[in-house]
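Sequence only, no structure available. Ideas?
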Amino acid sequence: MIKHINPGKRLSGATVHDGILYVSGQVPETPYADVGTQTKEILAKIDKLLAEGGSDKRKLLNTSIWLSDISTFDEMNKSWDEWIAPGPAPARATVEARIANPKWRVEIAVIAAV
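Reply:
I predicted one. Tokens follow.
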């Protein structure tokens, strides 16, 4: 069985299949805010999607993070470190990329066990 969370014509906010929750790339609500603020907004959205899918940040398996400017890596990590659950961290990749909307400084996608 496949469960779609917040399904839309182009994408779903998340999809659950076979005990794995795939959260689509999440972007911030506040345009042009600093990367720390945008990261916190995104992580709050991810928390909600994880809960809707029957998971939480303690069950993260993999995270992909895209930054519009890699020089903001430390600032993003500050927000990440405040949010991530204690214990072993998930596998993670962080890269610099041109994000679809220039107002967004960061985008984050996660995969978690259910």
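Residues 2-113 form a domain with the 60s Ribosomal Protein L30; Chain: A; fold (CATH 3.30.1330.40).
Hope that gets you unstuck.
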